[in-house]
């Protein structure tokens, strides 16, 4: 009986991983490819989206620069940012609604009420 539960657990884990992999692939909207700088305070927060679904970010706070990398995809008007190493207490798999107004990218968090930002294309 114990062996049954171990096998069942392994199968359930594999099904879960495969379903997440299948859902998480997404596509990359070519309009996002490039570097985007926080509109309200240029140089404070910058995202770079690469065409291959990888990306990087830089945040400058109190003269300390924080750099990170992520994987990204889009699904309709949803932008998924999966950070490779999110600091403790921060969201690792971010979900945003996004749209463009000229060369400005507007994002609104689907996870944190009232969190939105605008970025200018560099």
Overview of this protein structure:
The chain has 122 residues and is an alpha+beta fold. It has a single domain (28-121), classed as Lipocalin (Beta Barrel). 19% of the residues lie in helices and 47% in strands. The protein contains one helix and eight strands. The protein has one helix spanning 2-24; strands spanning 34-38, 45-49, 54-61, 64-75, 78-83, 93-101, 104-109, 116-121. The chain has an eight-stranded antiparallel β-barrel. Strand 1 and strand 2 (45-49) form a beta hairpin. The chain is globular and about 35 Å long. The termini are far apart. Residues 1-24 have low confidence and may be disordered.
What can be said about this structure in brief?
Helix content is 19%, strand content 47%. The chain has one helix and eight strands; from the N terminus they run H-E-E-E-E-E-E-E-E. The model is unreliable at 1-24 (pLDDT under 50).
């Amino acid at each position: 009986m114990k062996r049954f539960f171990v096998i069942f657990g392994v199968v359930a884990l594999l099904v879960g991983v495969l379903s997440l992999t299948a859902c998480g692939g997404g596509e990359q909207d070519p309009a996002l490819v490039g570097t985007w700088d926080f509109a309200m305070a240029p140089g404070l927060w910058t995202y770079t989206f690469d065409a291959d679904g990888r990306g990087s970010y830089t945040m400058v706070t109190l003269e300390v620069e924080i750099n990170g990398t992520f994987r990204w995809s889009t699904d309709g008007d949803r932008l998924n940012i999966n950070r490779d190493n999110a600091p403790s207490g921060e969201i690792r798999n971010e979900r945003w609604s996004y749209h463009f107004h000229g060369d400005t990218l507007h994002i609104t968090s689907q996870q944190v009420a009232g969190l939105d930002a605008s970025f200018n294309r560099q």
